[in-house]
Design goal:
phosphoprotein, Beta-Lactamase, ATP binding, about 40% helix, EC 2.7.13.3, 4 domains, ATP-binding, alpha+beta, disordered C terminus, about 25% strand, five-stranded antiparallel beta sheet, about 500 residues, Sensor protein FixL
């Protein structure tokens, strides 16, 4: 309580100069003075408050309690916070409520004992507290439900928090690890090295804490170890430095990587064997095969008058099968080299390339091959794209069964790809064979009737798919077939097709 009596003018000066909202009431709780800040806070004209009970500024639910406490306060007046232990709210003139802190101070005046109430709007503080609570609740939910293990340690390496995922990962309960050093979760040599790394970081700030941003090894309660990814972040709680480690068990990933490496080694070995096989085929098989072919040709020429019709047919079949074997060996070598033996990709003008292929194939006079529109220039290996057109066109020529054969080549744009088509009016193909004909060594006609190795279309499919395209066909039995294939336009140069968009 003040030791000197305060006069009315002194009270008015005190309130007018204050930046906080203040009112002065008598023993009955009637407002004697109110400062301008009260008007801003509650919306009442301050002169309109004079003579009214202070309860007018309180919501209805607080008024009775306030009035009953007023007498006890004047019995033992002292400076204190009003409503300690409970939340207080103010009531504005418009009926809206807002949280407040109220401090009471007794005043000894000429008029007797009065009380001065200082009122603070704590809306922002309450909002901040609520936001903090929500943030902590969210963080707790993340901590508890995270798939990854989360371990929080202090600057001495002592574990403070250990989430459920970490419990499952390491086999310890949180109670078993809290207040113990985090190195208990590491096998040697990580266990012995951890404290030294942590101390070095605390002294120098250099991020050499074991495992930060890389793979390390964890140790479970049962002593077994497992590979894990560890990411560590630093936070501060006042002057304390805290470290939160996020741990992920990567055992499955490591197993997958080991399996992938093993498969790659096996693939490399298989490729090496294939390359060696190709060498053996090209050098060790073709030489005797050429000798057989030469001998067969010599026999059929020099001893032609010695053979009867059956003998001549046998010699024809022998020579034919030698040629087929030679073609099969060449086809296997070509197939094995696709994707393994690389040429330099260059811009290839398909208009020129396709006409060169047609000249090379020299189709019979009864078969007409036409290019329906301008073909694009593509960035490819020249030999590979030549093999695609050569095999598709030679197939159409070889199997043509019409006296007037027609083969049409076209290209148009389909999205981000070139769509090529080669259409013939040949015998057509039954739908059940659409997939079979792209398989290695598969033919539809007997080989003694139509010479075929069964490699050509399989080779075309492998080349087209190597460039990211696909191949398929449409066919009507007796009326002909259309083979379609695509190449990405991203691999093309400035050349373009004049065909319509698909």
């Amino acid at each position: 309580m003040t030791e000197h009596l305060l006069e009315g003018k002194s009270l008015e000066w005190l309130l007018e100069s204050a930046t906080d909202a203040m009112i002065i009431t008598d023993r009955e709780g009637r407002i004697i003075l109110a400062n301008p800040t009260i008007e801003q806070l509650f919306g009442y004209p301050r002169h309109g408050l004079i003579g009214k009970l202070m309860e007018v500024l309180l919501p209805e639910r607080f008024r009775q309690a306030h009035h009953s406490q007023l007498g006890s306060y004047f019995a033992r007046p002292h400076a204190r916070a009003m409503g300690a232990g409970i939340e207080l709210f103010g009531l504005r003139q418009d009926g809206s409520e807002f949280p407040v802190d109220v401090s009471l101070s007794p005043l000894k005046t000429e008029q007797g004992l009065l009380v001065m109430a200082t009122i603070h709007d704590i809306t922002r503080r309450k909002q901040a507290e609520e936001a903090l609570r929500e943030s902590e609740a969210r963080m707790r939910a993340i901590f508890d439900t995270a798939v990854d293990g989360i371990v929080t340690i202090d600057e001495r390496g002592t574990i403070e928090r250990f989430n459920p995922a970490a419990e499952r990962m390491f086999g310890y309960t949180e109670g078993e690890v809290v207040e113990k050093n985090v190195s208990m979760l590491m096998p040697s040599p990580y266990h012995e090295a951890h404290d030294g790394y942590l101390a070095h970081y605390m002294q120098t700030g250099e991020k050499k804490i074991i495992g930060i941003g890389r793979e390390v090894v964890g140790q479970r309660k049962d002593g077994t170890t497992f590979p894990m990814d560890l990411a560590v972040g630093e936070t501060r709680q006042g002057v304390r430095r805290m470290f939160t480690g996020t741990v992920r068990d990567i055992s499955a990933r490591k197993q997958a990587e080991e399996q992938r490496d093993r498969l790659l080694r096996e693939l490399e070995s298989a490729n090496e064997e294939l390359k060696n096989f190709g060498y053996v085929v090209s050098h060790d098989l073709k030489a005797p095969l050429r000798a057989i072919g030469s001998l067969a040709n010599w026999l059929s020429t020099d001893y032609a008058d010695k053979f009867d019709d059956e003998g001549r047919e046998h010699m024809r079949l022998l020579i034919s099968r030698v040629h087929r074997m030679d073609g099969l060996i060449d086809g296997i070598l070509q197939y094995s080299r696709v994707g393994r033996v690389k040429e330099v990709s260059v811009p290839v003008d398909l208009n020129r390339q396709v006409h060169e292929v047609i000249d090379l194939l020299a189709p019979p006079a009864n078969i007409a091959i036409s290019v329906e529109n301008s073909l694009p220039t593509v960035m490819v290996e020249p030999t590979r794209i030549q093999q695609v057109f050569q095999n598709l066109l030679s197939n159409a020529i070889k199997y043509m069964d019409k006296p007037e054969g027609e083969i049409r080549i076209a290209c148009n744009i389909k999205g981000k790809q070139w769509k090529f088509s080669i259409t013939d009016n040949g015998p057509g193909i039954e739908p059940q064979h659409f997939e079979k004909i792209f398989q290695l060594f598969q033919t539809l006609a007997p080989r003694d009737r139509v010479e075929s190795t069964g490699v050509g279309l399989a080779l075309v499919k492998k080349i087209v798919e190597m460039y990211g395209g696909r191949i398929w066909l449409e066919s009507t039995l007796g009326r002909g077939s259309t083979f379609f294939f695509t190449l990405p336009r991203t691999a093309a140069t400035a050349g373009s097709s004049n065909g319509n968009k698909a």
